[in-house]
Amino acid sequence: MKDVNELVDGFRRFQQRYFSEDRGLYERLTRQGQSPKVMIVACCDSRVDPAIITDSDPGDLFVVRNVANLVPPCEVGGGYHGTSAALEFAVSTLHVSQLIVMGHTRCGGIRALLGEIPERSVPSGFIAPWMSIVAEARHEVQAAFPETAGEARERACEQAAIRISLRNLKGFPFVREAVIAGRLTLHGWYFDLERGELLCHSAATDAFEVAVARL
Fold first, then answer.
1. Which of 158, 152, 122 is nearest to 137 (CA)?
2. What is the DSSP-derived secondary structure letter of residue 47?
3. Distance (Å, rounded) from C-alpha 200 to C-alpha 70?
């Protein structure tokens, strides 16, 4: 596990690469501003960094990360809206053409939703209200897997939550308009940590299909 000094050393390596050896990239990004074509809504989980997983360079991705990679419903009252603000900026100002909701196996947020993490370990009361965005996913998998616990139920719930987030995206007028106009395509991705596989949601089958198989 890295400590702060190791992170500072990492910054020095980053600095050497992008501000000495390949200075042109950040000179262009500074002069021209950012113009990513892809936005990814990803989880906070330290194991699923979108830039690392997709082997992307600085400036390639516009990323918002939150617990369990959720897209909330479109609503303007009741609190702060960091994810919604990021969506609005990406679609309406940056004009991204691809928008990906990327979930993953072993998601702590989904485990909390399913009651598999003791409440005493998350006593502040922030996680449960946030995860209620996809409470429907919990009801769905409990009905489908009444006698099953553990990995199978978690996996089903993780994928169901991605479907709900894709549906919620279409509730934002600026997203819906861009999709209808053909300027924006929505994707659901599921990263399998154990297998090292990428599964993608198929609109035709409403299922997650292997896009990149395990080695």
1. 158
2. T
3. 16
Both structure tokens of 70: 């959720």
Greater confidence (179 vs 143) lies with: 179
Give the domains, in start order, of the chain with CATH numbers: 1-33 (no CATH), 34-212 (3.40.1050.10)
Six-digit token string for 13: 């390596």
- Which pair of tokens denotes residue 31? 């002069």
Find all residues with CB under 8 Å of 210, minimum gap 6, and list them: 197, 198, 199
Of 72, 105, 52, nearest to 175 by C-alpha is: 72
* Mean pLDDT value across residues 100-106: 98
Q: In angstroms, rounded to a whole number, what is the distance separating the alpha carbons of residues 4 and 198?
A: 31
| 118: pLDDT strictly greater than 70 | no
Report d(CA 42, CA 59) in Å as an integer. Answer: 17
Q: Is the dihedral of CA 92, 93, 96, 101 positive or negative?
A: negative
∠1-53-88 over CA atoms, to 5°?
A: 110
Tokens representing residue 72 in the block:
């909330």
Taking only the tens place, the pLDDT of each residue in 15-43 is 999 999 888 999 999 999 999 999 999 99
- The yes-or-no verdict on residue 146 having pLDDT over 90 is no
